[in-house]
RNA sequence: GGCGAAGUGGCCGAGUGGUUAGGCAGAGGUCUGCAAAACCUUGUACAGCGGUUCGAAUCCGCUCUUCGCCUCCA
């Protein structure tokens, strides 16, 4: 069995083999940190988190780099517009670096809630200015870039195959679409900035051979990807909206500088929409994760995201989230039930499910199908446990191992207990268990005496504080549903 | 205008040339003091119109609609 990945470059699924056997180099475009993360960020980073996890499950050593863009780029490639981080700094009456730091921390906080594992290296653009200057120098020397008035531009004409990723290869057609009358030193309007001279009052600026200024907005990914992963990497991921111009520019400047292929597999994840319209910071319709987490278990959000394919648009609605919450709860319930189950004699083989799960994941990370397999497994497990013979110890352990590997390690959706199990809370949890035993015993006594008013009262009052009691054949069991 | 993606049952959402995706919601049932959970049963879906084919929702063409990119954006 082998892994197939949809490569945006070529638009087909291709068999994945890393450049160096056993080791995968992977770079994913990180966030620009000038505001709190929203649901769109969640979709992107959860999706790539699962990609990394699955590659690791498949036995690869993955070197995963995800940058933090802490330089505010201009809102426009035509030398106009404002620097977003600087703008936010003005708004918050502080300086750009504080803005960047604040929102970087906020970003990681949200990603932690979503169970997104940290990248191996998370380089900041501002910490790699020399590397970026270096790359620009290489391009100037080789004739792919030119300097005018302290600004340096990449000459698109000098690079054959510009636009091959997005399919925008006809530069003349592109030019005609670009509005006229821009004030710029560019030779061609499709040329893009590698280095910009800082205006008066621009706060984030560095010395360079050309001017005191700041790097162009495509540059950091190329420079940092090459520094940490080499000149040719296996996988580069990012949002679809970055195909053009960002990724096409990255390819051009990188390959022009090295003469080698920049990226072997390009992966692009699709957008989150609300009522069919793209969610975006600029559109002011984005759903802030911190707000969302107030009402919804972050892992429900993760599950909701993984229930659709990463290359599909995901339409947000409250009813869709609720449906996901119920679905995930069903899987969690099965996981819990399995854990509390006494040994029986029935034999249960989860191998067919494991095989189908692997097939789904190997088919371009098809998490919706993988999750469907878990639902079918859940049904089969429950049916087996409902049966008088139950499940033998060996069978149960086999199923638990698979569920931990698939649901927890790979998809990251069945790890609630771990999240709740903060060290400092351990003692509390233990005490709660003891207290619950007492309550359940009292309730059992009431039931025995047919005092259903009292037994129901105990159950209802506990439910009010988030503890659910269920009567089963083997007596009452309880679970804490309040912990998120 | 150029480049690209997509239209699936009440909702979300996979997939595919002929055989059940899955989840949520709904209906009926089993179990239960009741509840919850679980299980069983239940849904003649694939935008429209042509064409290819023994057979298409799946391939081709046209039409309609939606969305993304062509300004920063996950």
Strand content: 5-15%
Helicity range? 40-55%
State the strand order across the main sheet: 4-3-9-10
Arithmetic mean pLDDT: 90
Text of the CATH class of the largest domain: Alpha Beta
| Termini separation | 37 Å
Characterize the largest beta sheet: strand count, sense, and whether it forms a barrel.
4 strands, parallel
Instruction: Extract low-pLDDT stretches.
Output: 175-182
Q: What would the principal axes of the Cα set say about the shape?
A: elongated
Structural class per helix/strand content? alpha/beta
Number of strands: 15
CATH architectural designation of the largest domain: 3-Layer(aba) Sandwich
How many domain modules?
Answer: 3
Q: CATH homologous superfamily of the largest domain, by name?
A: HUPs
- The whole-angstrom Rg is 27 Å
């Amino acid at each position: 069995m082998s892994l197939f990945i949809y490569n945006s470059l070529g638009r087909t699924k291709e068999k994945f083999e890393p450049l160096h056997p056993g080791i995968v180099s992977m770079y994913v475009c990180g966030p620009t940190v000038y505001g709190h993360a929203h649901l769109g960020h969640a979709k992107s980073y959860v999706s790539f988190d699962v990609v990394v996890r699955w590659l690791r499950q498949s036995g690869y050593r993955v070197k995963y780099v995800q940058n933090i863009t802490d330089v505010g780029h201009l809102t426009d490639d035509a030398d106009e517009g404002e620097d977003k981080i600087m703008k936010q700094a003005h708004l918050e009456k502080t300086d750009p670096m504080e803005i960047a730091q604040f929102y970087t921390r906020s970003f990681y906080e949200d990603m932690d809630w979503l169970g997104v594992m940290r990248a191996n290296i998370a380089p900041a653009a501002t910490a790699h200015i020399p590397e970026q200057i270096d790359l620009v120098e290489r391009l100037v020397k080789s004739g792919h870039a030119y300097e005018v008035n302290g600004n340096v531009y990449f000459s698109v004409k000098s690079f054959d195959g510009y636009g091959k990723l997005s399919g925008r290869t006809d530069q003349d057609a592109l030019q005609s679409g670009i509005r006229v009358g821009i004030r710029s030193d560019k030779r061609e309007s499709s040329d893009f900035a590698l280095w910009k001279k800082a205006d008066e009052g621009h706060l984030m600026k560095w010395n360079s051979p050309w001017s005191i200024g700041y790097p162009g907005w495509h540059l950091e990914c190329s420079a940092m990807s090459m520094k940490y992963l080499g000149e040719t990497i296996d996988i580069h991921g990012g949002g679809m909206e970055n195909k053009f111009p960002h990724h096409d520019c990255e390819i051009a400047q990188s390959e022009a500088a090295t003469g080698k292929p920049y990226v072997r597999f390009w992966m692009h994840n699709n957008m989150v929409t609300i009522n069919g319209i793209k969610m975006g910071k600029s559109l002011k319709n984005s759903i802030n994760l911190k707000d969302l987490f107030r009402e919804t278990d972050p892992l429900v959000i993760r599950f909701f995201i993984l229930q659709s394919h990463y290359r599909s648009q995901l339409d947000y609605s409250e009813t869709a989230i609720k449906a996901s919450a119920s679905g995930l709860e069903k899987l969690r319930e099965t996981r819990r039930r399995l854990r509390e189950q006494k040994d029986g004699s029935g034999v249960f083989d989860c191998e067919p499910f494991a095989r189908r799960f692997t097939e789904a994941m190997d088919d371009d990370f098809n998490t919706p199908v993988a999750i469907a397999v878990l639902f079918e497994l859940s049904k089969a497990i429950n049916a087996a446990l409902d049966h008088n013979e139950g499940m033998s110890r060996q069978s149960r352990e086999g199923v638990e191992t698979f569920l931990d590997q698939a649901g927890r390690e790979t998809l990251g959706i069945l790890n609630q207990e771990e999240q709740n199990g903060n060290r400092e809370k351990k003692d509390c949890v233990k005490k709660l268990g003891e207290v619950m035993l007492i309550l359940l015993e009292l309730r059992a006594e009431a039931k025995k005496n047919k005092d259903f008013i009292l037994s129901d009262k105990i159950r209802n009052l506990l439910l009010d504080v988030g503890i659910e009691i269920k009567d089963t054949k083997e007596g009452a069991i309880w679970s804490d549903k309040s912990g998120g």
